[in-house]
Amino acid sequence: SKKVLIIGAGGVGSVVAHKCAMNRDVFGEICLASRRKSSCDKIAEQIDSEIHTAQVDADNTSETVALIKDFQPDLVLNVALPYQDLAIMDACLETGTDYLDTANYEPRDEAKFEYHWQWAYHDRFKEAGIMALLGSGFDPGVTNIFTAYAKKHHFDTIDTLDIIDCNAGDHGKAFATNFNPEINIREVTANGRYFQNGEWKETPPLSEHRVFDFPDGIGPKDMYLMYHEEMESLTKNFPDIKRMRFWMTFGQQYLTHLKVLENVGMTRIDPVIYNGQEIIPLQFLKAVLPDPGSLGESTKGRTCIGVVADGHKNGERKHYYLYNICDHEACFAEVNSQAISYTTGVPAMIGAKMMLTDQWKGKGVFNVEEFDPDPFMEQLNVQGLPWVESWLDKKPEPLV
Ligand code: NDP
């Protein structure tokens, strides 16, 4: 069996550590490392079998290199923050170790959501004979694999693809974000963008709105067009798709709070001077908001994330919806986390399993949809994220 080094002991890191420990046939030894060792030790205490813990500042490549040399992992699974991606990839290059993450690199001073920095490592990873798997969370991650699965099994061509992400959960707080608030708010306050006939079209933040009737009793929810990073690789890897959009649901209460925070300048990511010290308003805001990791206990309801594809098979027009429903309370009962961390951490573990068992192999930097979706889809059903596929008579009205 193999050795995995998990970097980042937040909401997602906790789920990854729990899930790797439930798959000991693959993950023989596990080390969980983070900026604060105490974050790792708290998680290790909840896990029945032994996992190692360590302190590392992953912004500092030489610290990560030293830890890799000491623990000798077969794979580094990065679930720290997007800011650390490149520094950790450098450490993997220096030590010849495979790499996996769930979010694209972001510079701290710009919210860009672009893969080019990481794709630029392809030749160096190839030459070093190692593999990097990018974006193996839910979205990006499972939504890319859902698209690859739809194409492989049900379509000759996909004409339009809508990724729809619904969190119908309620954490009982006036305002909180389901994952790292800094990353979440940067994403939500950015311009919307979608792909049509080979071009990207911009929309003002959260200006495009539809009501979608979600399945299995979740019912109608307000959803908003956003840019989301998986569209960059999906439009490249599935060039036949003529229109691709991403939608996420938000409640009115969340949006009202967000608007106020934005209007008063609390979501700014440029430094301001306070008491003679530079602070970033959004980072300060993060410090006063509820810790997403603490929401698990109180969150009820379900998430429903999937893809709606419209296209042709054997000359026939087809409308197809593939989704997962995940229950916040069930996740908490299983691994002490809410569904947002769970739906990210489980696919990160599965991606690592695909690599460590050689079911997904390559030298260079890859996105998940470049590999055979079938073994990954099988694992989703086994590891707690079962999926449902349905054929529709026509494209749902809100997505026309
Ligand atoms: P959290 O903020 O809960 O956790 C981040 C963790 O990273 C913390 O434990 C923190 O350390 C650690 N960390 C931060 N900086 C460093 C550093 N310099 N060196 C080492 N460790 C560091 O975030 P989440 O768990 O919610 O998210 C983790 C990742 O998953 C993010 O990149 C996020 O964008 C991504 N994500 C992806 C999704 C998808 O579907 N693809 C969905 C949700 C999230 P400490 O506690 O020790 O201070």
Structural description of this entry:
The protein folds into 2 domains: 2-134, NAD(P)-binding Rossmann-like Domain (Rossmann fold); 142-336 and 386-399, Dihydrodipicolinate Reductase, domain 2 (2-Layer Sandwich). The chain contains 14 helices and 18 strands. Helix content is 35%, strand content 28%. With 400 residues, the chain is of the alpha/beta class. The mean pLDDT is 96. The termini are far apart. Strand 2 (27-34), helix 2 (37-46) and strand 3 form a beta-alpha-beta unit. The radius of gyration is 20 Å and the shape is globular. Strands 7, 8, 9, 10, 11, 12, 15, 16 and 18 form a 9-stranded mixed beta sheet that branches. It has a 7-stranded parallel beta sheet with strand order 3-2-1-4-5-6-17, with helices on both faces. The protein has helices at 11-21, 37-46, 61-71, 85-95, 116-119, 122-128, 142-154, 181-188, 230-237, 252-263, 281-288, 328-335, 339-356, 373-382, and strands spanning 2-7, 27-34, 52-55, 75-78, 98-101, 131-134, 157-167, 192-196, 199-203, 209-214, 219-226, 243-249, 272-274, 277-279, 302-313, 316-327, 364-367, 387-392. Helix 3 (61-71) crosses helix 4, helix 7 crosses helix 14 (373-382) and helix 13 (339-356) packs across helix 14. Bound molecules: NADPH dihydro-nicotinamide-adenine-dinucleotide phosphate. NADPH dihydro-nicotinamide-adenine-dinucleotide phosphate is lined by residues 7-13, 34-36, 39, 56-59, 79-82, 84, 102-103, 137-141, 179-180, 183, 292-293, 341, 344.
